[in-house]
Write a structure and sequence with these properties.
Chain A is α+β, with helices and mostly antiparallel strands. Chain A contains ten helices and ten strands. Chain A has a four-stranded mixed beta sheet. In chain B, strands 1-2 form a two-stranded antiparallel ribbon. The longest helix of chain B is centred in the N-terminal third of the chain and has 20 residues. The chains are: A alpha+beta (249), B mainly alpha (128).
């Protein structure tokens, strides 16, 4: 391609670049220790404004019906890992991989409580970078429910999606010879009439609330669409419009 | 010569038994509960040495001396704690913080439990 043609290309902007690339581009040289912890510090702000209001159409209506999402009540997580166990059993996740994980944050100088656990999983973003970069369309956004799916038959194991994902939600499954990830238990449960993901069903503290954001009476929708309690998303700066929300209290 | 031996024996007895006379060091150390969920830490060091509780504050009314006795019971649950049993006798919101708040103060989780067993290393502290 000649330089002349390059000039005529449409500028895609930096908001659609994978986070890592964009960070390099912006030359933000500071070391981020604990990828997700870095995100949460920046992310404590109203989720509605941050994740949806930037393009008003998302606030007005959710693009999928149902539009699955999850609310994580972070202060209730006790790292018992029952969610991880239930997930591994339900979705046949090998010991070396994970579809969901629990991060730990320790602040020795904090008052009262110095430790906090943060459950993480695929955020089923509305603008999924993994889908954007997949060369074979093995990973795609399901038009029915907004779940970011994997078609292991199409996956060539290039791991570009892993690089693109700001949430570190993907691992390479050596049995499937394909990347594997959370599908909100679509294959194992939802598609077979189940109403909850395995992790949400297994949580003894109701730290994970699974729901349909497109319904006004949905528990996740109701918490996201209020101003009394702070709701945030992880790494909003990635601009992927995630569907996993976090709150405390 | 006899006096020397008596003194020697007395000295040895004191040397061996001496630490036993010191107060508040003879306690159960860290108790890591595994039931009903993995990873709850009770620190005798904190409760006895720092907060000054006596053994009979909890033993044997709330907890038996033998570790694992409470765990084996079906009613060793958060619901039971909220009703004032076990830890909930003090962790009621007035004597000490309520057992229905600050979950991760006591819940060290699977990570904490594995650390106690020496299976994983201590966490890196979060940046400020």
């Amino acid at each position: 391609m000649t330089a002349l043609k390059f000039d005529n290309l449409k500028n895609e902007g930096i908001e659609n670049l994978p986070d890592r690339q964009r960070r390099n581009f912006l030359k933000l040289g500071f070391a981020i220790t604990g990828v997700f912890a870095g995100g949460t510090i920046l992310a404590v702000t109203s989720s509605v404004r941050r994740s949806f209001a930037s393009s008003g159409d998302f606030l007005a209506q959710y693009p999928y019906k149902p539009h699955y999402g999850m609310l994580i009540r972070q202060d209730r997580c006790i790292d018992c890992e029952r969610c991880k166990q239930a997930c591994a059993k339900t979705n046949h996740v090998p010991a070396y991989g994970y579809r969901t994980d629990i991060l730990e944050r320790v602040r020795p100088d904090a008052e009262g409580q110095q430790r906090e656990f943060i459950p993480v999983l695929c955020n089923h973003c509305n603008l999924p970078q993994c889908v954007r970069v997949c060369p074979t369309r093995a990973t795609y956004k399901d038009r029915r429910n907004g779940i970011v799916m994997m078609n292991p038959k199409k996956c060539i194991g290039c791991l570009t999606c892993q690089m693109a994902c700001p949430y570190n939600a993907r691992y390479f499954n050596e049995e499937k010879m394909a990347v594997d990830k959370c599908d909100f238990c679509w294959e194992a449960r939802l598609d077979r009439g189940g109403k909850l993901t395995a992790c949400a069903a297994a949580c003894p503290a109701q730290a994970r609330i699974f729901g349909d954001l497109s319904r006004d009476d949905d528990p996740v929708h109701r918490v996201v669409h209020q101003i009394g309690r702070t709701v945030w998303v992880l790494r909003p700066e990635a601009g992927t419009k995630p569907n996993v929300f976090y709150t405390r209290g | 010569m006899r006096l020397f031996f008596i003194c020697l024996i007395c000295g040895l007895v004191l040397l061996i038994a001496g630490p036993g006379f010191a107060e508040d060091v003879d306690h159960g150390g860290d108790i890591h509960f595994k039931q009903p969920v993995v990873g709850v830490l009770f620190s005798h060091t904190l409760h006895v040495e720092e907060l000054g509780l006596e053994c009979d504050s909890c033993h044997e009314g709330l907890f038996a001396y033998e570790a694992g006795t409470a765990e084996a019971k079906d009613d060793f649950t958060m619901k039971s704690l909220a009703e004032g049993n076990y830890c909930g006798a003090c962790h009621d919101g007035s004597t000490a913080f309520s057992s229905e708040t600050r979950c991760a103060v006591c819940h060290e989780g699977v990570k904490g439990y594995k650390r106690a067993l020496g299976l994983i290393n201590a966490p890196e502290h979060d940046r400020k």
